[in-house]
Amino acid sequence: MKKILLIGTGGTIASVKSDKGLTPGISPEDMASKFASRFNCEVDSKVCLNLDSTNIYPNHWIEIATIIHNNYDKYDGFVITHGTDTMAYTAAALHSMLIHLGKPVVLTGSQIPLSLMNSDGEKNLIDTVHYASEGMAGVYIVFNSRVIKGTRAVKLRTRSNHAFESINYPYVAYIENSVITYYTRPDEPKGDQKPVLETNLCPDVFVLKLYPGINKEIFQFIADHYKGVIIECFGSGGIPFYEVNLADEIRELIRLGVVVVLTTQCLEEGIDIDLYEVGRKIDKDKVVISNDMNTEALVPKLMIALGKFKTMHEVIHQINLEIVKESIEYQF
User: Fold this and answer.
1) Do 92 and 226 sit in the same domain of this protein?
2) Using alpha carbons only, how large is the chain's radius of gyration in Å?
3) Is 295 annotated as a binding residue?
4) For the Asparaginase/glutaminase C-terminal domain, which residue ranges apply (predicted)?
């Protein structure tokens, strides 16, 4: 029988009512014990954190990744219960921190706590354990019967059970009555070596969403305080240059050594900076063009690259390699 490690980090799924509102209070041991008869494998448990996921920071990603790495040889897969608000960021971070991962690492949570009636947490947890014991290697989110690649998940809904969508990538699989139906199969790593753990993160990253009327002085603030910035452009890559020339501000950031990543505010279909004149104002060889990758995945990728490499060129090259790999893995 396969063995799975259930790692608890808190979140709605583990929450109970209190005078201060919902707060994490159910341990992973309680979850494992309550649903042991419903699991198709042996499940051990370990507490990592007990936080609302709005309080998850990059140092917590390191704690989660380290537990997986330290226990890698003991288990066939790993399940992480996590709050939904930052789950997509954590999934993308683990994807980049556990290099050459050869086992399933699967995150789940719920919109309604396990402690309340009509919770979606029971099905999500059982589906996730089942997928971790039989699924493919890699990092995934299992939620509302759907399996989503860890670098492609975005939380779109605040209350519905169908909280997450897979952006610019098909669902990996669908789970119903413990039957896994695959829609696509991401490339699996070759060999059974232990993954390389990457923990050098630089959190000095700013996410800037452009809007009509934005004050260009924000760019000087970014230059003074951050090493990297992800700019969510308009549409296919639009950057204002008429009354306020933000293209010049971006070029100045680059000159000052800030790594610039350009993405779009649109969730689907990605960025094409060459399509319009407004996008061609930027030298694309000196920035990262995100293609169709979402911000939740770009944030940890940029933090990890900034922590690992010393020069702007190395950081840009590394992120571009990862984006290209993601883009060619599945072609629409």
Assistant:
1) no
2) 20
3) no
4) 204-315
DSSP summary character for residue 75: -
CATH, residue 256: 3.40.50.40
pLDDT tens per residue across span 43-101: 999 999 999 999 999 999 999 999 999 999 999 999 999 999 999 999 999 999 999 99
Q: What local confidence, expressed as pLDDT, does residue 21 receive? A: 86
Q: Same domain, yes or no, for 193 and 213?
A: no
Give dist(CA 103, CA 136) in Å, integer.
7
State the catalytic residues: 12, 84
Query: Of 140, 172, 197, which residue sits at a domain end?
Result: 197
Q: In total, how many domains does the chain have?
A: 2
Beta carbons of 90 and 79 less than 8 angstroms apart:
no
Do 153 and 290 fall within a single domain? no
Same domain, 192 and 226: no
The token duo for 88 is 């997509």
From residue 101, give the alpha-carbon distance in Å to each of 68, 136, 234, 303, 307: 10, 10, 35, 19, 20
- Give tens-digit pLDDT for 174-219: 999 989 999 987 666 655 678 999 999 999 999 999 999 999 999 9
Does one domain contain both 191 and 209?
A: no
Q: pLDDT averaged over the chain?
A: 93
How high is the pLDDT of residue 274? Answer: 82
Tell me the residue range of the domain where 13 lies.
3-197
pLDDT at 27: 95
Tell me how far apart the terminal alpha carbons of the chain are, to the nearest angstrom: 38
Does the pTM surpass 0.90? The reply is: yes
- The counts of H helices and E strands in the chain are 8, 18
Given phi > 0 = left and psi -120 to 50 = alpha, else beta, which region is 211?
beta
Q: Which of 154, 171, 197 is the last residue of a domain?
A: 197
CATH of the domain at 189: 3.40.50.1170
CA separation for the pair 32, 126 (Å, rounded): 10
Q: Does 85 appear as a known binding residue? A: yes
CA–CA gap between residue 249 and residue 297 (Å, rounded): 25
